[in-house]
Known about the structure:
The chain is mostly beta strands. Helix content is 3%, strand content 52%. The chain contains three helices and 39 strands. It has a 22-stranded antiparallel beta barrel. Strands 3-4-10-11-8-9 form a six-stranded mixed sheet. Strands 1-2 form a two-stranded antiparallel ribbon. Strand 12 and strand 13 form a beta hairpin. The radius of gyration is 24 Å and the shape is globular.
Amino acid sequence: MKKVSALVAAAILAGHCSYAQPCWAADATPAPDGQATPAPKTDLTQGSLSAYDLPAVTAFGVVDQPPTVPVQTRFGTQYNVVTEEQIRQQNSLDFYDALRNVPGVMYQKKNIIGGQTGASLYVRGRGASHPSPDVNIYFDDVPRSGVLYGQSLADGIPVYALGGMEIYKYPQPSRFGSGYAMLNFIPKYMTEEGYELRIGAEGGSYGTVAENVGMGAKKENVDIYAAQSLISTLGHKDHTAAYQSSYYGNMGVGLSDNWTLRMMANRVDAQTQAPNNPITNTRATDRFDTQTSLATLSLINKYSNASGYLKGYYNDTLFYLRGENSNTTTSVQTNNLYGLRGRETYTIWEGSEIVNGFDLDISDLRNDQRRYATNATTSWEFPQHRLFSPYAAISQMIGSKESFHVTPSTGLRLYTSSLFEDKAAPQAGLVLGYNNTNLGFNYARGVNYPSPVVLQGLLANKTSLPAGLDTKDIRPEVVDHYEVSLSHTQPGLFTASATVFHDDGRDRLRAYMFGNAMPTSDFFTSSTAEYKINGLELSASVTPTDNLELFAGATWLKAWAKGDDGVSTGKMPYTPAFALQTGFKWKFIEHFQLSGDYQYLKDVYYAQNWARTTSPAAPASTAPNLTEKDRLPDINVFNARLDYIFSYDDMHIEEGKVFVAVNNIFNTPYAYSMERAGNDRGLYNMPGTTIMVGFDLKF
């Protein structure tokens, strides 16, 4: 993948630029032969843009470094990245698997590819709530998830349309709004003059096959890229088949030297079967169908000292929960998301950086359910939710990169909701550094607004909420995040980072899903339920030779939660006490590359969800009652891929790869979920050793 200049890398860390948030540099010229441009030492007192020596940046604005190592920013914040090349190197068939080497992140699934409709993505102990959108899923910097119940939309994100991923593991008001964490998918587009054709295919264990075709062209001020992909598997056990088909397009038109209009669209159709209960060998749901379409229109500006965008979007997603064969229910969940977003990052005086913008997000949601046994139907038309959140942040670099430097920062995001109580989220940061060593301090408040689904019990077969209920009295959840980080970089050799953090969450939301009692506005927010999470995260990458890269990340989490009943617990769902991710990439002989990675997760407790539902007659928001019976076996998985890399001028093959990928090499039994029946426990075991063989050709 072609790289852009080190000045663009400086803008990346200074202003979180990406395709959706363009970089400042006007001289973003690729290095010869696609090699990374070395990052020169920069001095912010001379008007440059970052306090750090930076790694190379991919063509899509994603920092090119291992996914275990966080990117440090001048706001005292951090985020992790996964590049397109790393997604391919891991041979990831869905976006869950692409996250397997990001510290503090884990997922749950029962199938080789795809997901289901409950909570399934977890970031530092958050994400197990249902219903709740704790973890934001963005595509091209706009929402793309099942916000009705909080689904992370694994079936609806095609990995072959991605130029990279950004993972924000805690609240950052100057970067994203409602929610505790955010995952942003950066879409592909043409970055260089010329033409490109990319063809790939693979097949292997359990009838799993995948193919993808991408074509693009760029001439002067116009570029276009189109891609198609299909993934299918018969499944590793009975009734675990799944497939996903995707069609994607991205077009940019340069209006002038400083302004670009870009249009992106993606359509995905997918289906994931639900496996039988491992104890009873029956199932309540047969399969999950997903149909999702997303379109964005972006007006992008880029000047020498400023850049930004104005973006409109529309996202239409349908979830079908089908239970025909099991004679239970079918449910159709309609998620229509649309809105307008704007962001600008600029410098006015020497050493400064100012970020401001706004998010206007609107959701129209509906759920239709039919019970086969009685043929009874129920429909819920949820009230429209409009959330407007303007924000601003400023940082000031004092000193010189080659010596001592100090960068204080502050910011604020305001939330105005059409349904729920308005809120404010401040942030503050301080970076102290000397040359390539930086000590960062950060505080941020996270605000988590509920979906209108918390009102579900009041809306069955009705067109409006009952009189007397003022939803503006319903408070969103909040969490206060505190973090201290220390990082050091030896350019060209290694990067190391240590982070200590503390989360203090309160005002836990309740959802009124059943019961006859009329709830008051106070019912929806628990004034006593709370949780705390303490963590330590260590990460490093080492490049001892030009042909060898090693990386590792380790996370320790200690959680505590209390319900309204006063009962507390030290166990939270999908909050591993310890997690380790490590891997390598080794180029040897002349045309061969071997890459591998290993994941170890200890003391993971399973709960179908951390339920928010309760009855107004006994409005308790209890902490999960987890015991040793709920603890999953420790997870140990080692994966590897061997590539033969070549080029063939006679056929215009710029780069070709023939590969074999082996997952779970040691055939270790592991599972992310289980079923319980009394004292019996049945695990949804993931596949044993799987082998995929394929090719990838770039013309």
